[in-house]
Amino acid sequence: MQNTVVSLQNATIQNENKVVLADINFNVHTGDFVFLIGKTGAGKSSLLKVLYGDLLLSKGNGSIVGYDLEHLKDRDIPSLRRKLGVVFQDFKLLPDRTVFNNLAFVLKATGWSDKQKINSRVSEVLSMVNVGSDFQKFPFELSGGEQQRVAIARALLNHPELIIADEPTGNLDPETSQEIMQLFKELHKGGISIIMATHDYNMIVKFPGKIFQCSGGKLQEVIAKKEA
What we know:
Blueprint: E1 4-15, E2 18-29, E3 33-37, H1 44-51, E4 59-64, E5 67-68, H2 77-82, E6 84-87, H3 99-109, H4 115-128, H5 144-156, E7 162-166, H6 174-189, E8 193-197, H7 201-206, E9 210-215, E10 218-222
Parallel strand pairs: 3-8, 3-9, 6-7, 7-8
Antiparallel strand pairs: 1-2, 1-4, 4-5, 9-10
Helix pairs in contact: 3-4, 4-5, 5-6
């Protein structure tokens, strides 16, 4: 039986006091790969922000990896985010730290103190995303695709149950986008649930999963048509 990783029931999401999405019923189970699609401003990012605690749930019931979104307190957010991996379009790496120190910083901030364990885990996740040899470089010395791989490695540090990715290929060329998507697919095969907002419909065809569309203030599941 699959566990429910994310559940939103009769939920409303507001951003700057404007209702973005209403009457949302959305469930993600262990092992799901979910795409969120929709035009810019349709509510994809706002939905993701609610899931990782950056926006409050305005109305309804919601939970994510065991946390009640309706009653989420500021003090709960750090521990929630330790159970999630979040990947952004613009990487959000610290420019004044090496690749290795970007990741070590996150581990220290989330309670890791043993230097040997920190070094081991950083090396492990960098190896998983194939950037192990670049660990002493600074972000500006890397290509966009390499920076996104580091950002994905950062998301993996605390063994997340779920990765939330907001347009992770939005700043990348088509070939690099394919490589990054293949990496996400491998992580998914390894047992991590993934929710990804994207505007790249080619990716949805090549890397199939469940599809939900944000449109007209609603969130609806889309049944993909099979190619003849």
